[in-house]
Amino acid sequence: MSDNKYIRWFEEITIDDVSLVGGKNASLGEMYRELTDKDIRIPNGFAITAEAYWHVLDSAGVLEDLQRILAELDTKNLSNLADIGKKARHTILDAPIPEDLWNEIKTAYDKLCEQYGADTDVAVRSSATAEDLPNASFAGQQETYLNIHGYHALNDACSRCFASLFTDRAISYRINNKFDHFDVGLSIGIMKMVRSDLASSGVMFTIDTETGFEDVVFITGSYGLGENIVQGLVNPDEFYVFKRPLKKAISPLSAKRSAAKRLR
Q1: Which CATH architecture has domain 7-193?
Q2: Rounded to the nearest 5°, which phi and psi values hold at 124?
Q3: Structure pTM?
């Protein structure tokens, strides 16, 4: 374990750390720890913990301001929701990242640059501490920023990730699922950017999403960044991989479909 107070490298994170780094970062840490030694190439990175999010609010003294802003929310008024969300986000954006936290972030980013090259580009990804619960999924409600490099852009992206805990849809979702706005924290994952803009990307599910059948892996893929697939902006290729033959050196591909992929 490193001496950092607010930083955890992927190799230090397990799936049991959701309360500290959120569901996304906990899963990334588990993958990095378990699969890197098996020659599966997981981009390295680190998590800024949810404790850092609370540290930002405490250092700037804006927690009570946020509570006061959210107290004025009218859940039946969309215009009010947009206004409250904007005020909450700007309150966090106006709160500077404390120097002790920023020094840890810079040092960690410098180590990534040592591994991947000077001024390396990274993905800056939000990871809420309440993501992917059995009865609720907070994934996709906060922001992610791609192709970030350099201190200035990294600092700005981190602030915007913290502020995105109060996107309109995140506020509405917490209310509908009876979560207190101040029981949920935000962690940030900073990882080497994969140059899928030069190749392909996709989404993999460990079951058949249509039937729930557990013996297949369902993979979708398209040219460029995966965001187009996630947002439903492109019809991707589809592949079904049958799990049982994987250990028997038998071709596991059971079905495939080529799609138009008109957008890159």
Answers
A1: 2-Layer Sandwich (3.30)
A2: -115, 110
A3: 0.87
